[in-house]
Amino acid sequence: MSFYDGPTLLGTGSIASGKASITNTFQTVGAHTFIANYGGDAANFGSSTSATVMVLSSTTITGPAGGPNLNAVAGKPTTLAATVNGNSPTGTMSFYDGSMLLGTATLVSGTGSINTSIPTVGTHTITIVYSGDANNAATTATIMLIVSLPPEQLIPILQLLLDDQ
Fold first, then answer.
1. Of the ranges 6-15, 20-29, 37-46, 109-118, which one carries the lowest mean pLDDT score?
2. Is there a contact between 39 and 62 (Cβ–Cβ < 8 Å)?
3. Is residue 157 classed as helix, strand or coil in its secondary structure?
């Protein structure tokens, strides 16, 4: 059995138990017309079938500068940004704090960013979800955001601690 990407022969596979297969890595993204052609034998007529296969670029998300652990101050504006690495990715990425949507950004040159504020102190798992597009697969990434008290709230607490000594 012969397998084609349009007119280009990808390879041949031997038939066993009525099935044949090959392994192939497509070199370009986009729509490919995949054709399987059986030439027939003494007991069976030849046949051909085709299907359109959409090949997408694999994608990854590069988190914000500062690595996988970022810092923010509770209640204060902070910018979260990430870059999708792929084949000229377009579309959107969404940022979640757990299950709560913080915001959605439209990619510009593969990068999306939102301005947000996290009201609670602690470690927050931020999930970044890229929606994918015609050439790039959807993907997700997570970062840890460590949110601390703002200085104006921390100073009175420190003062109380010092006064107790």
1. 20-29
2. no
3. helix
pLDDT of residue 134: 87
- Cα–Cα nearest to 140, from 67, 54, 29, 62: 62
Q: Are 122 and 129 in contact (CB under 8 A)?
A: no
How does pLDDT run across 103-130, given as a tens digit for each residue?
A: 999 999 999 999 999 999 999 999 999 9
Residue pair 74/121 in contact by the 8 Å Cβ criterion: yes
CB-CB contact of 54 with 136 (8 Å): no
Over range 75-100, report the average pLDDT. Answer: 92
Give the start-end residues of each E strand in the chain.
Answer: 2-5, 8-12, 30-38, 47-55, 60-62, 69-73, 77-85, 92-97, 100-106, 111-117, 122-130, 139-148
Token pair in block for residue 56: 């997408």
Report the DSSP pairing between strands 139-148 and 69-73. Answer: parallel
- DSSP annotation of 57 reads B
User: Would you say the pTM of this structure is higher than 0.70?
Assistant: no
Query: Position 98: which residue type?
Result: G
Question: Strands 8-12 and 2-5: what pairing?
Answer: antiparallel
Query: What sign does the CA torsion over 131, 133, 138, 127 have?
Result: negative
| pLDDT above 80 (res 26) | no
